[in-house]
Amino acid sequence: MTGQVRTVDGRVAGRRGQATRQKLLECLREMLDTSPYRDVKVIDVARMAGTSPATFYQYFQDVESAILEIANDMAKDGQRLKTLTENQAWAGKGGYAAAEALVDGFLEFWQEYEPILRVVDLAAAEGDKRFYKVRQSILTAVTHGLTEAIEDVHAKHRTGDEVVPNAMAGTLVAMLAAVSGHQKGFETWKIKMRDVRPALATLVYMGITGKKPPR
Fold first, then answer.
1. Segment 127-145, tens digit of pLDDT
2. How far is CA 205 from the centre of its chain?
3. What are the tens digits of pLDDT across the range 163-205?
4. DSSP character at residue 166
5. Could you tell me if 90 and 151 are in contact, meaning their C-beta atoms sit under 8 angstroms apart?
6. What is residue 90's DSSP assignment?
7. What burial letters (b/e) apply to 155-175, b meaning 16+ CB within 10 Å?
8. Are 21 and 6 in contact (CB under 8 A)?
9. Cβ count near 197 (within 10 Å)
10. Dihedral of the CA atoms 89, 95, 101, 105 (nearest 10)?
11. 185 near 191, Cβ under 8 Å?
């Protein structure tokens, strides 16, 4: 944690208070690993953290606002996905390796934050603008980075002029996010993720370069 941490009524929390707040967030995240977020109650989070509901309400208005704190931290970490689009030589085998790294970045990020992303997606779909903003902050950043990469490839190699860079970037990012969020679902289709990975990398490479991957 950085900067001042305040209670709901605006007081600056001391070191002990900050530790308690962080413990509540850690317990909440752990509970989301195994329970639907609508089933998570303040009293259960407080009990797991070894404190009281009254203490929980000192730092958060409700469970959703606490989840939003976790989601905002996740969004900050999600900016690492954009860095995977930057300063890459997308042509040839090096470009395919960069496509693989981007795919791996998405898959690993969604695995790491799956419980939180599940809540973010549900709340955003239900019209909660706070969670919609979290999701967009992650995806918009990487879309912008990928758009610049595609524009650079087209300028250097004069390929894929019929493709609008930001449209292709947005399509690829939406695909990566959707597939990354469906990793458990592939198991029910008897599709192995080790086979999905190269399929995604191929699509990303072709979308960026307009060419088939090098053999």
1. 999 999 999 999 999 999 9
2. 21
3. 899 999 999 999 999 999 999 899 899 999 999 999 999 999 9
4. H
5. no
6. -
7. eeeebbeeeebeebbbbbbee
8. no
9. 15
10. 80
11. no
